[in-house]
Amino acid sequence: MIIINCPFCGPxxxxxxxxxxxxxxxxxxxxxxxxxxxxxxFLRENICGMQAETWHHVNGCRMWLIVxxxxxxxxxxxxxxxxxxxxxxxxxxxxxGES
Length: 99
Fold this sequence. Notes:
By secondary structure, the chain is an alpha+beta fold. The chain has a single domain (3-25, 42-94), classed as 2-Layer Sandwich (Folate-binding fold), CATH 3.30.2270. The chain contains two helices and six strands. The chain has a four-stranded antiparallel sheet with strand order 3-4-5-6. Strand 4 and strand 5 (64-70) form a beta hairpin. It starts with a strand and ends in a 5-residue tail after the last helix.
């Protein structure tokens, strides 16, 4: 079992989340040629070790997160909001500000 420490909801079982894929992929523009989309979606490295991934907290706050996870041990190094605006809100709350 993998426990993901959601910055909004706290520690949760990975079954509450949907895996979104490799967070390091730069997707092409919507009007890019089909071969660029093919390469971005299907030609990926099979990383052995630490990888940044996107996870969607489907059965919780519904936020998208960036999770740094070791693909061999499933150890999670860090979890942060995928959207910078959500990260700023968390920082403000941590500093004693309002949400």
